[in-house]
Amino acid sequence: MSGTEEIARLVLVDYITFGSAILISISIGIYFAFAGGKQKTTNEFLMGNRHMKVLPVALSLMVTFESSITMLGFPAEVYVHGIMFWWALFSFMFANFIGVLIWVPLIHPLKVTSLYQYLELRYKSRGIRLLGTSVAGVGTIFYLGIVLYGPAIALDAVTEFPIWASITLVAAVSVLYTAIGGLKAVIWTDVFQCLVMLIGMFSVIIKGTITAGGSAKLFEIVGNNGRLNFFNFDPDPFVRHTFWSLLIGSIIRTTGLVFNQSSVQRISSMPTQRAANKVLLFAGPAFTFTMSLAAFEGIIAYAYFHSKGCDPLASKQITNSNQVIPFMVLDIFKTLPGMSGLFLASLFSASLSTLSSGLASLSAQLTEDFIKPTFKSLTDVKITIIAKLSVVVFGMAAVGVSFMIVNIEGPITQVTFSILSAFTAPLTGLMFYSAYFPRATKKVNVK
């Protein structure tokens, strides 16, 4: 492999495959814009009339927290540092189980649209509510900026498609179907995009394993080169990753995802508490499974390039570890037209699902925490219009953040988890303290 020019080629059928996935996502949004009540009320636009089904909502919740970070960042982490990060995956199952036991029985009966309505009900304080929703909103916008960045660097690695154009495309598509179709469109496009993601990942795993010489050869290579580093129980907190730091730290972080507006929006969209419990119980193992597939892609990439005697990072064929998977994909699928387009479709689907969920949650927070309490004379129809317009504004803000971080060189998994932890940790602590300590007061929480 002498250079990127040998493999960085997409043909017409690749673009058709990729474009079809984008058009289907938009079509789902258009359908829900005209179906049912035509998204004219906040209850329908933000909550799907609170009569959503278990399986689509569970799949939507799963892909909400995966995005391009799963498709690119996690395999890059495994390729560079080994499989140790895999321990973090089990935390989501634990967090969702805690959610079923404690969080759903508390939040579902309240029928809230915004998570932070709970804080005002709990403390009789609008200030606490606004503080919580503001911190969460800023964190979400930064997170969405990273999500937009993922597919942009992938396209940059394998085509001449500019990063700025890729970021703009993903944002525009997501904003369009979210703004016109509401939560129903978000959830059902998530289902479609989940299927595209899984097909893309399995295609890469199957073809990559075969090309690398089979599973036995693959595990021999990665085992001999220290990439199957599962068991590091060193208690030293200064070691980059250990079993203890990953599992315990990730439990705290992923519990924060349960105490998240996107999660609460889906919990509250279910008709019964039992249905909400089923959503969390299904989403946890499903998340762990799909993330494990992503980890295996990183293992395959390492074995594949090792067997070819070529490290694309060391040879400067790529400049960023997050480009490893798309670089490999175009090489292994260069004789199979359409498959590289399928991978790009799965990558964009991952970003679209997370971005649309984030935009829907930001719209709900703005509507319920700021607009309704402040402008009480507005009709529900006018508030719904504001909610739709806010999706556009928040999408533009996420694009701005994405343009700020285009020079990040490390695995985006590390960057994302650092940002998520900075914003979710204090909010998770606030929610835990509020929910499980009856004597908690507004004064103590602010301090």
UniProtKB/TrEMBL annotation:
One of its GO terms (molecular function) is symporter activity. GO terms for cellular component: plasma membrane. It comes from the Eukaryota. One of its GO terms (biological process) is sodium ion transport. It holds the Pfam family SSF. It is found in: Cell membrane. The keyword Transmembrane applies. Gene3D superfamilies: Sodium/glucose cotransporter. The chain crosses the membrane at residues 12-34, 54-74, 86-107, 128-149, 161-183, 195-218, 238-259, 279-305, 342-364, 385-406, 412-433. Keywords: Cell membrane, Ion transport, Membrane, Sodium, Sodium transport, Transmembrane, Transmembrane helix, Transport. It is a multi-pass membrane protein. Belongs to the sodium:solute symporter (SSF) (TC 2.A.21) family. NCBIfam families: sss. PANTHER family: LD47995P-RELATED, SODIUM-COUPLED MONOCARBOXYLATE TRANSPORTER. This is Sodium-coupled monocarboxylate transporter 1.
